[in-house]
């Protein structure tokens, strides 16, 4: 929504690079240039993916990522790599990188912020180049056409949130299709193949090949921290949200692959100077998550997630996730009739395969906002689920709605959230200031604790600082060392 609507993605996805480094398998030959058909296919998907992930960033930071990506693409052996690859830095607060046919590779700014040197950036982009060079998407596309998940884009990708969801079938497909959680899903063998290629490209380019394992270690540490901050009992994403092998389980494999390969450059200082000032976390134009509260300073609204649920912010929807259900806040065209609006959202969720309609529609008022809601019970294999649409009229031509799925009889899990929607004041909106990366030089007397206190968070400052800078609990600082902080923008 910013009219870029809210929110997104990922489930902070423990994500994982749409190929997430590992090891094993043979390295395929990749000397065949990108074909015209592949280029046309990638060009078709490219604008849709940009839209799903906050758009492509511009400026010096995006140019730097592009340069590193094209340089590593040359190592693939593809005959037209430098000219054929399109490298995009995405304005997304989730940790992800992915690729589509035709030489289109992507990394989110959040994942770049988690990295600590140029070799790690090259490793992640090299992994994605490996997927392109090995034609992994085309193979997955053929399989998906036999068992489609998400329609057109689903042919080469799948929703992270959906995964192997037990809540869903047709309804879940429609429920998650508009979220920014779209990313590629490759087989484990293909992931390992891309890992091998990424390490090979690092070595050929003169980078330290161990960067593949260190960036995976940082991703695993961030996943673990996110799990604790979100109230999940372990570092894994819920089963229905998992599409990639856990990076923590692949660090040792990736490191073992680099034994005997020697070392190379990391270009740490250059990398840190280039990402200094990069926006970190949510972009206020897409709304921000502060603890259990979501606030959108441009749309002038706010709501609070129920206890025990966590949120992921994306370009087209805010996702609210928990073990007892999941929901999204999004918007759709509105012509001034809440009843018709709600019925249309049910119809959209049902799609062509299933007629879906609410049993009734109830009108109400929430914090002075005209609202209405309806529910429908849907068969889901041997069980049933409740689908609820709760809509709010903000003006004659603008409405927003939650769409929620819960086990039958448990739709009240989101009642407090439905009732928490409210308009915010201009003062509240003006107080939303984005966070950004601030690279500082350690001075004599600085400690982890003293620098961590400068982090723009109310809790877990030391833990956040250590993960951001790939520091173990026993690591200390030395004068002259450059480290990253997350501070409020100016």
Automatic annotation (TrEMBL):
Assigned EC number:
3.4.24.-
Q: Would you indicate the residue range of the signal peptide?
A: 1-16
Q: Which GO terms describe its biological process?
A: proteolysis involved in protein catabolic process
Q: Does the keyword Signal apply?
A: yes
Name assigned to this protein? M48 family metalloprotease
Residues forming the LysM domain are: 438-485
Checking CDD domains in the record gives: LysM, M48C_Oma1-like
Q: Which UniProt keywords apply?
A: Hydrolase, Metal-binding, Metalloprotease, Protease, Signal, Zinc
Indicate the enzyme's highest-level EC class.
hydrolase
Cofactor field = Zn(2+)
Superkingdom of origin: Bacteria
InterPro entries linked to this entry: LysM, Mito/Outer_Membr_Metalloprot, Peptidase_M48
Q: Is Zinc set as a keyword in this record?
A: yes
Q: Name one GO molecular function term.
A: metal ion binding
Q: Which GO terms describe its cellular component?
A: membrane
């Amino acid at each position: 929504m910013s009219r870029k609507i809210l929110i997104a993605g990922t489930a902070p996805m423990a994500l994982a690079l749409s190929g997430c480094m590992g090891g094993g398998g043979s390295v395929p030959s990749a000397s065949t240039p990108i074909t015209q058909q592949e280029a046309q296919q990638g060009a078709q998907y490219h604008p849709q993916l940009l839209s799903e992930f906050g758009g492509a960033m511009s400026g010096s930071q995006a140019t730097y990522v592009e340069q590193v990506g094209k340089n590593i693409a040359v190592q693939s052996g593809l005959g037209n790599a430098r000219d054929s690859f399109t490298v995009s830095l995405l304005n997304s607060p989730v940790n992800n990188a992915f690729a589509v046919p035709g030489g289109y590779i992507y990394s989110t700014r959040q994942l770049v912020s988690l990295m600590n040197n140029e070799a790690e950036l090259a490793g992640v982009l090299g992994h994605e180049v490996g997927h392109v060079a090995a034609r992994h998407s085309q193979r997955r596309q053929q399989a998906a056409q036999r068992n489609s998940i998400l329609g057109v884009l689903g042919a080469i990708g799948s929703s992270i949130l959906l995964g192997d969801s037990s809540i869903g079938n047709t309804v879940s497909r429609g429920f998650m299709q508009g979220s920014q959680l779209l990313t590629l899903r490759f087989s484990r063998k293909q992931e390992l193949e891309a890992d091998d290629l990424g390490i090979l490209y690092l070595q050929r380019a003169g980078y330290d090949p161990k960067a593949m394992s260190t960036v995976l270690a940082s991703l695993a540490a961030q996943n673990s921290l996110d799990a604790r901050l979100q109230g999940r009992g372990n570092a894994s994403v819920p089963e229905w949200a998992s599409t990639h092998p856990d990076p923590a389980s692949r660090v040792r494999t990736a490191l073992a692959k680099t034994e005997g390969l020697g070392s190379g450059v990391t270009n740490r200082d250059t990398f840190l100077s280039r990402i200094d000032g990069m926006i970190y976390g949510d972009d206020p134009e897409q709304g921000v998550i502060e603890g259990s509260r979501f606030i959108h300073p441009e749309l002038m609204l706010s709501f609070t997630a129920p206890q025990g649920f966590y949120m992921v912010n994306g370009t087209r929807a805010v996702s609210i996730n928990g073990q007892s259900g999941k929901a999204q806040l999004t918007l759709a065209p509105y012509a001034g009739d809440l009843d018709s609006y709600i019925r249309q959202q049910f119809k959209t969720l049902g799609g062509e395969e299933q007629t879906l309609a609410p049993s009734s529609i109830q009108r109400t008022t929430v914090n002075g906002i005209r609202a209405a809601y309806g529910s429908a019970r849907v068969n889901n294999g041997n069980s049933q689920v409740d689908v609820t649409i709760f809509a709010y009229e903000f003006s004659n031509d603008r409405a927003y709605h939650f769409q929620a799925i819960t086990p039958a009889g448990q739709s009240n899990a989101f009642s407090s959230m439905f009732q928490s929607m409210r308009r915010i004041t201009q003062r509240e909106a003006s107080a939303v200031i984005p966070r950004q990366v601030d690279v500082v030089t350690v001075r004599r007397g600085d400690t982890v604790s003293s620098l961590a206190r400068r982090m723009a968070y109310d809790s877990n400052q030391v833990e956040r600082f250590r993960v951001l800078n790939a520091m173990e609990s026993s690591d200390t600082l030395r004068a002259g060392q450059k480290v990253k902080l997350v501070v409020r923008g100016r």
